[in-house]
Amino acid sequence: MAGPLLLSLPILLLSPALGSAGQGAQDTGERIVNGVPCTRGSNPWQVALFNGIKMDCSGVLIHQQWVLTVAHCHRPEYTVHMGSDLLNGPNAQKIRATESFVYPSFSWEFQSNDIMLVKLSRPAKLSSTVRKVNIPSQCVRPGTTCTVSGWGTITSPEETYPSQLMCTNVTTISTEECLKYFVYVQKYHMVCGGTQDSTSNANQGDSGGPLMCSGSLRGLVSRKPLSLFRRLNPVVFTQICKYRKWIYDTMRENS
C-alpha cells in the first residue's frame, strides 16, 4: 500500500478532549482517518488502555512499570494491552493498573496540561514487541513531518474501528496557525499537527496515541476538532518535552 497520508481534522472552536475520563466525560478521542496499517511491530512502545472490554485510549510505555497517556483518559483502573498491533492479539501482554497520576494543573475547561502517568501492577516483560520509548529534552518545531498512530475510528463522520494499529503522517504547524481553528492553544505545552487541506489525521478514539518525530516521542493526541465542516483540521497534541521533569520526578517518588 502507499505510505501514510497526511491527516486532516474538522474545525474546532474548543473541541472536547479525546477519550473518556471520570465525571461523566464523553469519549471524544481522536482516531486515525485515512491512514494505513502500521508496519507490523513498528510501534512496540504503544499500548491500549481498556476499561473492561472497551478500549478507551492509547498510551506509551516509558518504563517497565509506567505508561504515559493523557489526563482526560483517567479511570479508576485499566487493563493495559501491549506487545501486539492487534487489539485482541493472542500474544499481547495484559497488565492491570489501578494507580494514576494526573498532572496537578490539568484543566478540563481549557484542556491544558493534558498528561498523566499510569503505574502498572507489575513490570512489563520487555521483548522485540514490547519496548520503552525515551522522553525527549527538545521540542518539535513547526514544519516537521511526524507519524501518529492509534486504534481510533478510520472513517469520519461515521465511525468505523479497526482491530489493527493504524498510522499516518502529519506535519506540525505553528501555534499562530493552530489558533485559526482552536480558541485556546498554549504555545509552550501544546503542539498542533495537520492542515485544513489534510486528508488524514488522528480522530475519535486515538487519545493518548504517540506523535513520533525522527524516532522520538514528541506528543500525545489530546484534542480533536469539531466536525463543523466535515474536514480534518489540526489535532492538538500535548508537548511532551515540557513535562520531562514532572514525569521523572513522579516515577521516582512513586516507585
Please name the defining characteristics of this protein.
globular; 29% strand; six-stranded antiparallel barrel; disordered N terminus; 255 residues; mainly beta
Radius of gyration: 16 Å
> What overall form do the CA principal axes indicate?
globular
- Helix/sheet category: mainly beta
Low-confidence stretches: 1-32
Give a short account of the largest sheet: 7 strands, antiparallel
Write the layout of secondary structure elements.
Elements: E1 36-37, E2 46-51, E3 54-63, E4 66-69, E5 78-82, E6 93-97, E7 99-102, E8 116-119, E9 145-150, E10 166-173, H1 175-178, E11 190-193, E12 210-213, E13 216-223, E14 235-239, H2 244-253
Antiparallel strand pairs: 1-10, 2-3, 2-5, 3-4, 4-8, 5-6, 7-8, 9-10, 9-12, 10-11, 11-14, 12-13, 13-14
